[in-house]
Amino acid sequence: MNFLAASFSCSIWTSEACTDCNAVLKGLQPIFQQQRMTETIHSWEDHGYLATYTNKNGSFATLRIYPHGLVSVDLQSYNDDMKGRDKIDHILNKIEERMKELFQGSIKRVKRLPAIVRGDAIDRYWPTADGRLVEYDIDEVVYDEDSSFQNIKILHSKQFGNILILSGDVNLAESDLAYTKAIMGSGKEDYTGKEVLILGGGDGGILYEIVKLKPKMVTMVEIDQLVIDGCRKYMRKTCGDVLDNLKGECYQVLIEDCIPVLKRYAKEGRKFDYVINDLTAVPISTSPEEDSTWEFLRLILDLSMKVLKQDGKYFTQGNCINLTEALTLYEEQLGKLYCPVEFSKEVVCVPSYMELWVFYTVWKKRTEI
């Protein structure tokens, strides 16, 4: 039996301060007493009341009354079939009605939040890059494996299809062709007869789309075989059949760490028309000197420039458009490479991210003759 805990929240703002918090508490107490809940009250001279109510069935509630006019209620139900929701809705309705009676039309705003469910077999909650919590319509765990590098999940969403999630980070859904197109240059590039290097990209989406465009050769370097295994089986709307074999007429997939590969190519003098970095987003940390992810990012940038043709292009994702400080720091890193570069950026809506995402195009600065 799968026992679930669901948290329900309601906040009520009044247009006037609760000059008598005790009166509000006394007005709401009967609602909880009718449910035969045990009450504990904490009070502060200038900060109102906190009342907790517990029930023998494991459910409980917290009532917080602030002197500036905010009353918040949180209720948690604990059961196996969520039948307690109707009962909680009834309690919240009674609280709203009583508050309207107490304040006689001076209620400014009432806000109820959907229930947050804990303990379910399927995790529906995943954060956006800028720290907001999103509840996805996930109904199935399709794939869940731990590799030497990361946890790999593929979850099914009713809206977005299967979603690849790496160590808690939403990477790509079957709905996210917009991501793949953006990191390839948004349809503005001619890949015919070109040499392309993909760093990462284990979902196969970039490789699948570029192969259609008749390149000379695409080399994809992905460190994690288990990502490829999962996506080959469960992300076929994204990768098609390109991951069925690690070699094709115009592509090869290397299961390796990309840094030694880049260093080897640089030493050999090998050059590419396009380098597509699909390894990681720009770090959220705003301390480049202290964060090892920034060091990794700078190393990848420098090595990529060394294997990029003079007229070639480097494509990569940035991060959420709201992370302006992190994006600015990334652009500052571009000015610290071994060779001068220029860049442009594009903002794209990636469906499963539920936020706007920034993509960069970087190229070597043309020297004046």
What does this structure look like?
- It contains 9 helices and 19 strands.
- The protein has 369 residues and is α+β, with helices and mostly antiparallel strands.
- A hairpin with a 2-residue loop joins strand 11 and strand 12 (169-173).
- Helix 7 (258-268) packs parallel to helix 8 (292-307).
- The termini are far apart.
- The mean pLDDT is 90.
Layout of helices and strands:
Layout: E1 4-14, H1 21-33, E2 38-44, E3 48-54, E4 60-65, E5 70-79, H2 84-103, E6 107-118, E7 125-127, E8 133-135, E9 138-146, E10 151-157, E11 161-166, E12 169-173, H3 177-183, E13 195-200, H4 205-211, E14 217-221, H5 225-234, H6 236-239, E15 251-254, H7 258-268, E16 272-278, H8 292-307, E17 308-320, H9 324-334, E18 341-350, E19 355-364
Parallel strand pairs: 13-14, 13-16, 14-15, 16-17
Antiparallel strand pairs: 1-5, 1-6, 2-3, 3-4, 4-5, 7-8, 9-10, 10-11, 11-12, 17-19, 18-19
Coarse structural class: alpha+beta
Gap between N and C termini: 75 Å
The tally of domains stands at: 2
CATH class of the largest domain equals Alpha Beta
Parts with pLDDT < 50 across at least 5 consecutive residues:
none
Based on CA atoms alone, the radius of gyration comes out at 27 Å
> Into which percentage range does the β-strand content fall?
35-45%
Major sheet attributes: 7 strands, mixed
CATH superfamily of the largest domain: Vaccinia Virus protein VP39
The appropriate CATH architecture of the largest domain is 3-Layer(aba) Sandwich
Describe the strand arrangement of the main beta sheet, using strand numbers: 15-14-13-16-17-19-18
GO molecular function: spermine synthase activity
Pathway: Amine and polyamine biosynthesis; spermine biosynthesis; spermine from spermidine: step 1/1
EC number: 2.5.1.22
Pfam family, one: Spermine_synth
